[in-house]
Amino acid sequence: MKSEMIRLLRESEEYISGQELCDRFQVSRTAVWKIINQLKEEGYVIEAKQNKGYRLLESPDTMAAYELESRMCTKWAGRIVSYKKETGSTNIDCKKLAEQGEPHGALAVAEMQVNGRGRRGRGWQSPAGESIYMSLLCRPDFAPDKAPMLTLVMGVSVAEAVERYTGLAAKIKWPNDIVVNGRKICGILTEMEMGLETKEIQYLVIGVGINVNNGFTAMRETGNPVRAREAAFPDELQNMATSLFLESERKDEKIFRAPLVQYVMEAFEKNYELFLQTLDLSLLKERYNSYLVNRNAAVKVLDPKGEYTGIALEIDNEGDLLVETEDRGVIKVYSGEVSVRGLYGYT
């Protein structure tokens, strides 16, 4: 009821009377008053006027389930949200949701992760209340070898959502890093659970971590963008990581996270359904390639079998990166243990 009440208040341009809320949700005036007061305590600014009713003036920057659910206009992506203030990993939380029978599209979110993981087991910086930590449950009906492509589907979805919400020019560092101005703002980790006997996909979990307001507190305190970046990330990540706040060059205004989650879910639902039409990236390839930060640029392929350099061309229908080399022609680079870097830096 709380999420539907927030949705109703947000979508209304006029005051909504207490009686209308009672009739809508089939509860007493006292119950409505209690929920309104709970929302006020949680940071919602709600104006109440006698003989007029209630009007929502401002929402807090929260990842709470009722805030996210109140924003979702998707068919299935993010319609059910499980929220924690602090967790080890939203991917683990999402796996538990899957084992409990939650449906395709259920979303696990948290204000803070203490054991977040990135690609190849790397840690992921997860300060409280600054960023987006979420994992989406998918229950696909296709062969396991198709699953890795969903990481790229989510990648293009995040890039689209970031551009739509912030206006910043998001790019993709193949296969699953979203970058702004050459620095990483998002990592994506997809994990799959298969049946022991059937060898079919039981479920997939797609974890997404987006740096949103990292550096906000330091910027407000110092007014210095350099100090804000230094405070936001450790020394080894200064030239590799950034946040949407830092790149938007705001001084004292946070970026609300919930609308960005909403836009990611809307984009992913659309792109996932395009993917299902062909079970490859043929309908998304052109859009993905338009975001590819290394496209037509020199790259170094860090293959355990031997490093080599070439020109990154584009991804193919399976999401493999095509790299043109001087001596070996065009090589298909598969994600996994292979990493691709710009010849002179991270991108």
How would you describe this protein?
The termini are far apart. β12 (321-325) and β13 form a beta hairpin. The longest helix has 21 residues, at 258-278. Residues 118-122 have low confidence and may be disordered. The chain is globular. The chain is an alpha+beta fold and 347 residues long. It is 33% helix and 26% strand. It has helices at 2-11, 18-25, 29-41, 65-71, 90-99, 149-166, 216-222, 225-232, 244-248, 258-278, 285-291, and strands at residues 45-49, 53-58, 81-87, 107-113, 132-138, 170-173, 177-180, 183-194, 201-210, 297-302, 308-315, 321-325, 329-333, 339-342.
Overall SS class: alpha+beta
Specify the helix fraction band.
Answer: 25-40%
Spatial extent as radius of gyration: 22 Å
Strand content: 25-35%
The geometry reads as: globular
